[in-house]
Amino acid sequence: MNLHINDFEGPLDLLLHLVKTAKMDIYEIDTAYIIDTYLEFINSLDKEDLDNASEYLVMASELIHLKSRLLLNIDSPTEEDEEYTINSEEDLKNKLIEYERYKNVTTALKELEENRSEYFTKIPEAIGEYMDGENNNFDRQDPTILSNILQELQKRMQYQKPLNTKITHREISVEDRTNYIRNYLKKRTNVNFWDLFSDYNKDMVVATFLAILNMCKNGEIFLLQENNFDDILIKKKVDHE
Predict the structure, then answer these.
(1) What pTM does this model have?
(2) Which fold has domain 131-236?
(3) Is 234 helix (H, G, I), strand (E, B) or coil?
(4) Which H or E run contains 94?
């Protein structure tokens, strides 16, 4: 038997290994064979190994006690049995079954830990402390704002259920959307970006997005965002600003 104590995580791990090596069903183990094999392994160890393996000796005493009960055909517990945790074949089986469950869970958790170690997360944080001047100064437009809002808009489009469509020759131009936004801004001071869409079809999104880009470029409007991840507000520029 070429086994070493360092190969196992404890006596129950060794017992489970012996059961699997013998190709036994853990629910129907040959108790006498497992006990004899375990004791044979303990007897084969060097004295130095035994000095560092007290838990294996404790299990050996448990198994010797169980073997004596089986040989004497003792079923009912005695006062001496209170010192032991394994007093029947059922006790031994239950301990092995419970240990195998814990071992399987531990293996699964280790795999999850290894998989998780391959990912790195970045916690969201406010960018205000990294900005110069007022946090809401968008005179120099940041292209990432519109890029992010377009991505969010595309996600919303995907969530919409398919609609019945019909052939139409109506086209939505950038100029039409620009005029629509101008008229909209005459009625309100700030306009929420999402309020510009009556629906999220592709032509509407592209034309509106290009219209906003052109108006930002021409200095007609600027974008306002109070805090990270808030909705984008569109505000018309006035002469005194």
Answers:
(1) 0.42
(2) Arc Repressor Mutant, subunit A (1.10.10)
(3) strand
(4) helix 89-116
